[in-house]
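Form P-L/3: holo structure prediction, ligand AHM.
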Amino acid sequence: MSGGSYTLAGPARPGTSLAYHILERQRAIPGASGDFTELFQQITLATKTIHSLVRRAGLVNVIGSTGLTNVQGEIVQKLDEFANQTIIKSVEAGGHVCVMASEENDELIPVPPESHGGKYVLLFDPLDGSGNIDVNASIGTIFAIYRRRSPVGGPGTLDDVLQPGRDMVAAGYVVYGSSMMLVYTAGRGVHGFTYDPTVGEYFLSHENIRIPDRGDTYSINEGNYHRWPEGLRRWVDWIKTPEAGSGRPYSARYIGAMVADLHRTLLRGGIFVYPGDVKRPEGKLRLLYEANPLAFIVEAAGGAASDGRGAVLDVVPTSLHQRTPLFVGSRLDVADCVAFLRGER
Ligand code: AHM
Ligand code: MG
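OUTPUT (holo model):
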């Protein structure tokens, strides 16, 4: 190695902690009760607990399947179940949600009667990309927070949960990767926080993330090529075809955990696609727990998220485990892909 200078020392702590960041923003809202701040704290506490187990996954008895399948007919990994219970217990204890829904639960998750005054609704995917657990690759947690629509004082209802993504109050995800990061938006900018294990807290590391209008990577499970609509096949062929000055060919990147693929797409630009195909016309991803929260974050960062027909966030959900095709990422890359899909190019 030669030239330059480099030191390993990081910034002196304290920086801006996640807890402080959220508190500061809530204080700026006249009449804010602090409930949202407390709910957020319960969620972040759960992610730290999940992380502590993820880090030791090969050492403690958490790798592998529970032997059960979930409502989608998918194998439930032990860590899926642990993460699910951790979030439910942590958030329930805070008393700020009137009902929850999770990718892992067939039905709504009710809360105890003493929490029926909760103003919020929480939807989450406790452990996204859980097929990656056994091979020590990145996984994540995704969550979406809505205001309740049912009267305060009674239990939350299905109507509270089936809200269009556009009505979300906040969304976030955590990547359990080479470091743990939490990215969230409450409508005013998208901010990223990196977990400092020596302090036990998330600190602001990526303020006001903006996704580039165009990137140079595409992320799709190309093994499904022969099941795709013809327009999408033409798009993938096009994106791989070199053309001077066009930025093509793009690089392919696909880790198989949407949170990790999306996180890279958010920071660097490009596009993530999970389409409908002949086997699964509405694709694989769940609207409520995966597509909507990530679409909300990407739109807030200046990107786009489509289901091939219109903005994902405008879809009015009709069932808890509804799936949706998803085209999300840099604005211009999503526009190109959707134009091919529709046969407009
Ligand atoms: P999961 O929530 O059950 O883990 O499934 C969702 C995951 C996404 O994270 C990922 O993008 C996709 O499934 C990968 O699916 P495939 O293996 O079909 O490419
Ligand atoms: Mg998932």
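COMMENT: The pocket of magnesium ion (ligand 2) is lined by residues 103, 125, 128, 290 (CB under 6 Å).
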